[in-house]
Amino acid sequence: SDEVKNHIGETIRVEGWIHKKRLLGGLSFINVRDRRGLVQVVIDHKDEVEKLRGLQIGTVLAVEGKVVEEPRAPGGAELHEAKLTVIVAVTEEPPIEIDKPLSHKAENLDTLFDYRVLGLRNLQEAKIFKIRSDLLKYIREYLYTQDFVEINTPKLQAGAAEGGAEVFKLDYFGKEATLAQSPQLYKQIMVGVFERVFEIAPAFRAELSATTRHVSEVTMLDVEMGFIDSQDDVLKVLESLVFNILTRVYEEHSADLKSLNAPELVLKSEFPRYTMKQIHEMYQKVTGKDMSKEIDLTPDEEKWICDYAKKNDGSEAVFATGLPASKMKFYHMKGDDDTARSADLLFRGIEISTAPQREHRYEILIEQMKAAGVDPAALGFAPYVSAFKHGLPAHGGFGFGIDRL
After folding, report:
1. How confident is the model at residue 302 (pLDDT cuts 50, 70, 90)?
2. Is the pLDDT at 165 greater than 70, yes or no?
3. First and final C-alpha spacing in the chain
4. For the segment 201-256, what is each residue's pLDDT rounded down to a tens digit?
5. From edge to edge, which strands make up the β-sheet containing 273-275?
6. Quick one: which of 351, 352, 329, 332 has its CA closest to 341?
7. pLDDT, tens digit, for every residue of 363-386?
8. How far is the C-alpha of 301 from the C-alpha of 313, rounded, in Å?
9. Are strands 11-24 and 343-347 parallel, antiparallel or unpaired?
10. What confidence score (pLDDT) does residue 161 get?
11. Separation of CA 339 from chain center
């Protein structure tokens, strides 16, 4: 790794795994992988070469050697005069070659899943998870600067908060429990405590996962904020958060993103906004297809408006506003003209988040629950209803799947 180059002329010790092995005449080269990356090691003494006999990729070892500048080696330096100590010998040939790019073609997926524990040791695969780790860090750091408190809510629940059939059921000491589809009700309750809260946690949806949009066990970011003047306050926090974390990812992981063929980021600090009605009309004008009867934007329209905004507004992220009231959940606030006070955030053709204002007025909430077929007196909902009865301010929030982002 780059760090080794800072020690040219010194003798250092590195511990890690054999990542690659090459034998060239009397010389042997190995690449040793540790948490920082790869170090190339030249092994020229026959006693040291002998220690490698029969050892496979994945062998855990320690290497002591002198750091020599070598522009062709990873990180621009390598170790010479190497002395090896084998810590864990691996003699079985690995079922996949982790030092080469792993093909994600459909016919290879079974093999990749069967040997995922090894495949993740491939540097390209691991990069995705390191980027994801930093993305979580950036989200937390941004929200802490905005006075949000991180909470942890129960994942075993008495009933389905979101309603619908996509719920996992399990035995809870002889009673039926469900796995949480979302922390929706809890985060609203906690507005009554901290005003601004967020959670990064798993959510469970009994949906088949073989699509680009659905995962049965997903990591969600959920955000809720109180004392808002309008839904616009929620959109501004979502916009600012997404702009902040995406620009940071692209600044701090630019080389890794390039190696993963990620497209350049095209983003403005203020995202363009179009109503769904406008998007239907613009799309029809260009394609001739009338989607005005659809409750939601079609996947093709989502892709189209993102491409349009990228070209015409200089932003790959775009808000679709004026969602129809028929899309509302019982906890959303109705807007004017049969719309919900809500907007979808689209990015690169995919819906990343929905950001509504909630209904905080007790009597109206009760009416909306009943209209949706939800019993406000049911055991699972009584504490939620109680929070409103005892004073919740105007509030709103959003969530998105970390993996989808």
Report:
1. very high
2. no
3. 29
4. 999 999 887 666 678 999 999 999 999 999 999 999 999 999 999 999 999 999 99
5. 149-150, 196-204, 217-226, 395-401, 350-354, 343-347, 317-321, 273-275
6. 332
7. 999 999 999 999 999 878 999 999
8. 17
9. unpaired
10. 56
11. 30
Q: How far apart are CA 272 and CA 251, in angstroms?
A: 23
Smallest CA-to-CA distance from 60 within 42, 26, 30, 87 is with 87
User: Can you tell me the distance from the alpha carbon of 117 to that of 142, in angstroms, rounded to the nearest whole number?
Assistant: 32
Q: What is the pTM of this model?
A: 0.93
Residue pair 131/249 in contact (Cβ under 8 Å)? The answer is yes
Residue identified by tokens 């839904």 is 231
Rounded CA separation 359/357 (Å): 7
Say whether pLDDT at 1 is over 70: no
Instruction: Give the pairing of strands 169-172 and 317-321.
Output: unpaired
3-state DSSP percent of the chain in helix, strand and coil, to 5: 35, 30, 40
For residues 164-179, give the mean pLDDT: 88
Greatest Cα pair distance in the chain: 84
